[in-house]
Design goal:
The structure holds 2 protein chains of 2 kinds.
Chain A lengths: L3 E5 L3 H14 L4 E5 L3 H10 L3 E7 L10 H13 L7 E5 L6 H9 L4 E5 L5 H17 L2 E4 L3
Parallel strand pairs in A: 1-2, 1-3, 3-4, 4-5
Chain B lengths: L20 E2 L7 E7 L5 E5 L6 H4 L7 E9 L2 E6 L10 H14 L2 E7 L9 E4 L2
Chain lengths: 147, 128
Amino acid sequence: MPKLIAILERDPARIEIMEAWLNDRFYMYEYSFLKHPSEIYEIVNKRASDLLALCLGCESHDDSGIQPTSVLELISRFLLSQSARFPIIVHSDGNHPLKSVDVHLVQGGWYFVEVEAPQGTDWIGNDWYPALKTALRETARLEDAVH
Amino acid sequence: MFGSPKKPLDRRPYPQSTDSRPLGIGEQVGRFVYVVDLQDTIHVAPDAPHAHPRVLGLAQEALHAGEIAINQPGHVVEITNLSGTFQFSDRGSLCCVATHLRRIGFVVNEVVWYPPNGSTGPIRLQCP
């Protein structure tokens, strides 16, 4: 079964660009766009061992008025209770300090990186895709070329 | 030695990109897609989705393809086999690209191979 890249993102314009990169480069992996933070719990519970990376849009909070950082705090607490480990890439407009989330996850042994997501979609190709790839490389195992 | 050449999966005869050029040691810092032609020359173009078909153009066959990142002059931080257009899967051919880059004069830091069936994450290859 192919590994899975899960992305919490609801903006159709962003999803379109992210899909263009994923389809062209990570064609060997499955990907799934999550619309609501609650879907993270479901996907981690069901497919933790298949997860290659989890990408979280900091602005992608639910409609209940909960602050994005609060959602991330909850997600990080949930992730810290898990045994599986996969890179976490957060894209954020920078208006919500993520320091505590960052520290907790890194201390818990997680690879965590934040990407600045300003207006527009240029940051997806310029920053998000490279950050995702770097995260995968940094957490990849080393093998001889002849296998 | 590279493996067998492959045609791009997208067979439309795109013209060659005006940004495509053979890779030399003086190449600027940046992220590129690369395609190795049948004469073993590595061609690069700026990184963008679905850029590979236009590196050689005209649906020409290639010996390998992927991404290359140069983080300082003469220094390749990473090469991969990531190309949805060509989908090369041979580890040895990816190491051939690293060998060619070293012959040109580049320092190559990481050779990262992505398995074609997606059953595992990427693997950092120790090329001979």
